[in-house]
Amino acid sequence: MTTQGLSKGDSYSVQVSDPVKLEHGQLTQYDFAKITLPDAVEVPPVVGSQANDLSADAPTAIDRVRQIEAHFQKTGAFSNGLVADGQLPSVSGHSSSRIRNLLTAKQMLGDDEQYAVSMSLMLRHLGIPSRVVMGFYLEPTSPENGAGEVKVTGKDVHAWVEVAFDRVGWVSFDPTPPKDNVPIPPDADEKKNNPWLFWGALLGALGIALIPLSILALPLLLIALLKSRRRKARLTEGHPAQRVGGGWNEVVSLASDLGAGIDTRATRRESAVVLADSFPATGQTPTMLAHRADASIFGAGQPSEEEVREYWTIVDGSLKEMAGTLGFWRRQQARFSPRSLLADGRNALKLRGTRLGLGPLVRPSGQGSPGWRSATGRVGTGPDGAGTPNPAVQDSGSGTAAAASEPDESTVMRNPGRKNPTDS
């Protein structure tokens, strides 16, 4: 034995006795040895807290050791700090601060010395006798394993943990993770823990791609909204006779959107004939609706609320019959067609011109609910085609009211709450 070191040409021989290695099941039969070890000082608090967490569910004492060993092997990353060899930078040593940084890092990164010290301190905290051992051993993949002569150099120095068992002695445990356990790059780890980094970018790209479609869809949505508001107004606004007229106009609007040639100057009964020819599936329903609308608008008194609801029920059934014989795309084309809305707009402009005083008002022989014709021949209807009944008579050409043969051509229309001109 010498303390002066070795010089060139010196040699020595070592006799090694490889102890019997007991399996896990065999070690469960032995208790830990009762020996006195020096107290560890300046141990970071994180050592004790992690030791308790990692061994909390261990069924046996030896399982507590194995679980702590497996924790470092599986979740730790290895680096000697040899940047020139392609390893990540890693601080050397096993000081209190170095162990604390290792255990509190988002990704543990260290060498066998640091992992062995961390495991031994945890076992000491749990009352398990342990120590850190430094020595030499070849890597399991080294071709020199099993050879008669082995060349050992400084790179073969390693550190591991040994635990004292009663009647067995010191048994080795190696918490050091494999050298191919490399750290997860920070950006990859962030993407793994934050899926929105992926889905957010994907949804953003889809959003940009959908902008042109949104621009194209906006007019269609506006048309659908206007038609929905128009239907609600026809169904709920005005007196009962006006709402019955609104139901008829709902039928005419759909027919117009479906391409039927409805003459705005025709009477309801004339329009019903066109509807029956254009949509055979409706049968006599258009004719019946036209007659009921004329009776409600031109007849005596007002229809009851129950009659209004019944009329609209028949209207909805007729609408389904009209669209039911068409294909899906043809129905969608009608749904978003602006044709009936444009017709309503033209009628509103005509009504506005009529109200500006273009001559004596007379009811037109045209389509829809109450409207008015001036002495100059101009026709006006309400904005939704239902109109608001007002006193009007058919123009006889001489400025006087003349009797006619059927109600929807000459019958004087009533305004609720007011006397008809012919009643005085």
Structure notes:
By secondary structure, this protein is mainly alpha-helical. The chain has 2 domains: 24-139 and 152-182, C8orf32 fold, CATH 3.10.620.30; 210-417, no CATH class. The chain has helices at 24-27, 45-55, 61-75, 96-104, 112-125, 186-193, 196-236, 240-257, 268-278, 285-298, 305-324, 328-335, 339-355, 407-410; strands spanning 77-78, 109-110, 130-136, 157-165, 169-173, 371-373, 379-381. It has a 3-stranded antiparallel beta sheet. A two-stranded parallel ribbon has the order 1-2. A two-stranded antiparallel sheet has the order 6-7.
Give a quick precis of the structure.
By secondary structure, this protein is mainly α. The chain has 14 helices and 7 strands.
Comma- or semicolon-separated keywords:
rod-shaped; two-stranded parallel ribbon; mainly alpha; 424 residues; 46% helix; C8orf32 fold; disordered C terminus; 3-stranded antiparallel sheet; single chain; 2 domains
Give the strand order of the largest sheet, numbering strands 1, 2, ... along the chain: 3-4-5
The description of the largest β-sheet is: 3 strands, antiparallel
Q: Give unreliable regions as ranges.
A: 359-424
First-to-last CA distance? 143 Å
Topology overview:
Blueprint lengths: L23 H4 L17 H11 L5 H15 L1 E2 L17 H9 L4 E2 L1 H14 L4 E7 L20 E9 L3 E5 L12 H8 L2 H41 L3 H18 L10 H11 L6 H14 L6 H20 L3 H8 L3 H17 L15 E3 L5 E3 L25 H4 L14
Parallel strand pairs: 1-2
Antiparallel strand pairs: 3-4, 4-5, 6-7
Helix pairs in contact: 2-4, 2-5, 3-5, 4-5, 7-8, 8-10, 8-11, 9-10, 10-11
